[in-house]
Amino acid sequence: MRTVSHWIGGKPATGTSGRTSPVWNPATGEQQAEVLLASTADVNDAVQTAAAAYESWSESSLAQRTKVLFNFRELVNARTQQLAEIISDEHGKVLSDAAGEVQRGLEVIEFACGIPSLLKGEFSDQVSRGVDLFSFRQPLGVCVGITPFNFPAMVPMWMYPVAIATGNTFVLKPSERDPSASQYVAELWAEAGLPDGVFNVVHGDKESVDALLTHAGVAAISFVGSTPIAKYIYETGLAHGKRVQALGGAKNHAIVLPDAGIDYASDHLVAAAFGSAGERCMAISAAIAVGGAADELVAAVSEKARATKVGPGRDADSEMGPVITAAARDRIVGLIGTGAEQGADLAVDGRGLTVAGHENGFFVGPTVIDRVTTDMDVYREEIFGPVLSVVRMDTVDDAIKLINSNPYGNGTAIFTGSGEAARTFQRGVKVGMIGINVPVPVPMAYYSFGGWKDSLFGQSHIHGPEGVQFYTRAKVVTQRWPHVDAASGSSFHFPTST
């Protein structure tokens, strides 16, 4: 049985806990590896190693950091296929989707390659007689990333390139469900010339998370995951003096108006709901059909859901793979059943799907549930599976009110041919990321990613300009260089400009 180890100080580390967790192949249902689970002592080793590396890395030149980042960018670009295969084998998503994930992570690496420009300070000459004022930003220290299973390459890449480029060192705690991508990336960092100890990986469960949240040597924590855990991460980290950004769950809605092209809208809804088996924090899980659009939309989406090719991620014909674990499959199947019990119509029922040759895989078929109401479990819960709920509303204003009443505020979209309706939507909806005829509005790397309400705890969104700010802190210097014989000009009153 293959064992996935930690990565500390530029090399694999076996740790001290002796505990492991299984790593499954979701397409076959078989265990393919085991991953080490870190103890508190292992976490301490990683943090102390990162702290020691910080002493020199934080003093490295911008030119040195940029050179390493460009090397890393070239390696990730060249090894995209290998990384995609690792992701597909452990997560289950199809290879093209896994490669797309790597590409979106690569864009953040490319953004971080411009760190010399991103870290420019400000300067004001002669703010008072003989006095100049300037500011600059410095790194924080040891930064931590705690990341989810659904994007084992991309989400960590939204964190550590910016953290490392700004002069911090990093400890990554990825999901124990699909850990090998992080191990592979650690090897690429070493090959790129990153000094030992700047990037470290510890695998684990709650013990390792709590150890990171409370460790005195950790300066900042970035997290992506479910809302209850995000709230716990934020409150615990904050209580222990950390800077924290914690991105939580989502219930992403897409409004479809009668003037939208139904064929276009249904194509994109199916892709946004069932891509990656719905295991995306930006997946569309609730479609709001407005007015006369409902019947035609449900018919079109249902037809395309039935035609979706479900199979193992390595199969080039597959459009959707399995979900991550048997427990996830069982939970999703249970919620589909609850939807039917509570009065919704199962337009397409994905329960009981089997894939020839992969009968033990963790598969759930694309599911469309019509006439969903807001009191149903399939609406209230973040299903995180290939399930699209259709809610029927009379007007676009009613649809906006529905979205705003939801506790989540991650992403949302509208399909319409009306600029007026789109503008009303984008200004009125209380959600962080908005798509106009774009169902999955993930910002480019030079903007920042983040939601509102229960989808974000903390002030900072992730990557982009807000990422640079999160991983640094400002210094402002007021300076004077008086002539040696000049009068001091000192005074007991509060200093003012003259």
Fold and architecture overview:
It is a single chain. The chain is of the alpha/beta class and 498 residues long. It folds into two domains: 2-248 and 455-477, Aldehyde Dehydrogenase, Chain A, domain 1, CATH 3.40.605; 252-436, Aldehyde Dehydrogenase, Chain A, domain 2. Helices cover 38% and strands 23% of the residues. It has helices at residues 40-57, 62-78, 80-91, 95-112, 115-118, 154-157, 160-165, 180-192, 206-214, 227-239, 262-274, 294-307, 326-341, 377-380, 396-405, 419-428, 464-470; strands at residues 2-4, 6-8, 11-13, 19-25, 30-37, 122-128, 131-139, 142-146, 169-173, 199-201, 218-224, 243-247, 252-256, 284-290, 345-348, 367-370, 387-393, 408-409, 411-415, 433-436, 452-453, 456-457, 472-480. It has a seven-stranded mixed sheet with strand order 15-16-17-14-13-19-20, with helices on both faces. Strands 10-9-8-11-12-22 form a six-stranded mixed sheet, with helices on both faces. It has a three-stranded mixed sheet with strand order 1-5-4, covered by helices on one side. Helix 1 packs across helix 9 (206-214) and helix 2 (62-78) crosses helix 8. It is globular and about 90 Å long.
